[in-house]
Design brief:
Helix content: over 70%
Structural class: mainly alpha
Oligomer: single chain
Order of helices and strands: HHHHHHHHH
Strand content: under 5%
Radius of gyration: 21 Å
Distance between the termini: 58 Å
Length: 205
């Protein structure tokens, strides 16, 4: 009887042990899988751009006040001008996207959609007559949303997150001003405006 009980106990331990790890992996996929997917698409598009000599940018990039450039409002965040450009946007996407996943969750899609639409339309209407590509508008939008949400809602988690983002990425604020050659400061500015707007549109949800 004792031996049988020991065997049953051992089997029970073998079965129960791995369950938390499975749940942990499922939770990680649920919260961060979208971010991995976004980066996968960005880098998949970057590989295609390299293979096609960046013709995708001329086809789908945002060109202000051009009907042919309207699709760039939605597609601009997926396109980049070089490997270095994609790399420079990937790290803040991971960090800020991770913070968004932890603190926003339910409204993450709505926040990102508002940032992309407001940022893209702002660049299309007011931007310089040039080809605008890159995910930095989304990065600035997330940054502005985290800061604004922490200040407006006065909740512990958003405030702590905002302070952390401010300390690490406080220098991002200078990216909304003109003066850097080859940089779409308009995308940064209107992306940030979209992030602040999203804070008030989704407040209390």
């Amino acid at each position: 009887m004792t031996a049988l009980a020991s065997v049953r106990l051992a089997k029970t331990r073998d079965v129960v042990g791995p369950v938390p790890k499975v749940k942990g992996r499922a939770m990680a996929v649920k919260h961060f899988g979208w971010l991995a997917g976004l980066l996968g698409v960005i880098w998949g598009v970057q590989v295609l751009s390299l293979l096609t000599g960046y013709t995708l940018n001329s086809w789908f990039g945002l060109v202000p006040r051009s009907l042919g450039g309207l699709d760039g409002i939605a597609l601009m965040p997926l396109l980049h001008g070089s490997v270095g450009h994609a790399v420079s946007n990937s790290l803040p996407l991971v960090i800020l996207g991770g913070l968004m996943s932890v603190t926003v969750r339910r409204d993450l899609l709505a926040v990102s959609a508002i940032i992309i639409v407001v940022g893209g339309v702002g660049v299309w209407v007011f931007g310089r007559a040039a080809l605008h590509v890159g995910a930095s508008g989304l990065v600035f939008g997330w940054f502005a949303f985290l800061i604004a949400r922490g200040l407006v809602e006065r909740r512990v988690v958003p405030v702590v997150t905002a302070l952390g983002v401010g300390l690490v990425y406080g220098s991002l604020i200078w990216g909304v001003f003109p003066g850097q050659p080859g940089v779409s400061w308009e995308a940064h500015l209107f992306g940030a405006i979209g992030g602040v707007l999203a804070t008030f549109v989704l407040r209390g949800r």
